[in-house]
């Protein structure tokens, strides 16, 4: 199967990408999925560790795709995963301040950014989903807000809005 190139035009997209490859565990899962489609159970058996967190981060960064594996008769279907890209092309421009914020957000622990995540999640749940509205409440740059939202397992950045993951209009 031919591999594709992941094109990154939005600076905040580097947050999940750097988080994915800033961990040896996540990198092992990604490398393993380069070869073939595998289920979570197969990965855990072959790699020797739990892979759910790695899969979540790789999915959030858009580096892994999934599909349902047809089961043997009498068994239930299982989701299997495969890495979607073998190359990356980065093409964006931003201020050094925004880039430094994104790098800082990437490598801080969850507890260090939890207060920002809590405020953003609370605001989005109450209906304040626009970047400008969130910027007024949080008093941080839009790029900072986008970067923090990309760290959240329940938030999705969609254009100039932040929504709950899975929410559609």
What does this structure look like?
The chain has 169 residues and is an alpha+beta fold. The chain has two domains: 4-90, Arc Repressor Mutant, subunit A (Orthogonal Bundle); 96-164, no CATH class. The chain is 48% helix and 20% strand. The protein has eight helices and seven strands. The chain has helices at residues 14-21, 24-33, 40-47, 52-60, 96-107, 110-125, 131-138, 142-151; strands spanning 4-8, 38-39, 64-69, 78-83, 85-90, 155-158, 161-164. The strands form three sheets. A three-stranded antiparallel β-sheet has the order 2-4-3. The protein has a two-stranded parallel ribbon with strand order 1-5. β3 (64-69) and β4 form a beta hairpin. α1 runs antiparallel to α4 and α2 (24-33) packs across α4 (52-60). The longest helix has 16 residues, at 110-125. The chain is globular, with a radius of gyration of 17 Å. The two termini are 34 Å apart. The mean pLDDT is 90.
Spatial strand order of the main sheet: 2-4-3
Please name the CATH architecture of the largest domain: Orthogonal Bundle
What is the beta-strand fraction?
15-25%
Count of helices? 8
Helix content: 40-55%
Main sheet overview = 3 strands, antiparallel
Overall shape: it is globular
How many distinct folded domains? 2
Give the number of DSSP strands: 7
Structural class: alpha+beta
Distance between the termini: 34 Å
CATH superfamily of the largest domain: Winged helix-like DNA-binding domain superfamily/Winged helix DNA-binding domain
What is the name of the CATH topology of the largest domain? Answer: Arc Repressor Mutant, subunit A
- Stretches with pLDDT under 50, minimum 5 residues: none
CATH hierarchy class name of the largest domain: Mainly Alpha
């Amino acid at each position: 199967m031919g591999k594709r190139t992941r094109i990154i035009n939005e600076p905040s997209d580097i947050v999940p990408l750097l988080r994915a490859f800033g961990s040896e565990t996540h990198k092992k899962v990604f490398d393993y999925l380069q070869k073939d489609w595998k289920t979570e159970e197969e990965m855990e058996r072959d790699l020797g560790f739990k892979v759910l967190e790695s899969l979540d981060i790789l999915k959030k960064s858009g580096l892994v795709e999934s599909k349902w594996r047809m089961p043997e008769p009498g068994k239930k279907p299982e989701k299997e995963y495969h890495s979607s890209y073998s190359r990356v092309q980065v093409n964006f421009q931003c201020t050094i301040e925004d880039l430094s914020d994104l790098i800082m957000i990437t490598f801080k622990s969850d507890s260090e950014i939890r207060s920002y995540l809590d405020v953003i999640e609370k605001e989005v749940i109450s209906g304040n989903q626009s970047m400008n509205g969130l910027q007024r409440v949080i008093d941080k740059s839009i790029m900072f807000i986008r970067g923090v939202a990309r760290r959240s397992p329940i938030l999705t950045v969609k254009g100039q809005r932040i929504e709950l993951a899975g929410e559609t209009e």
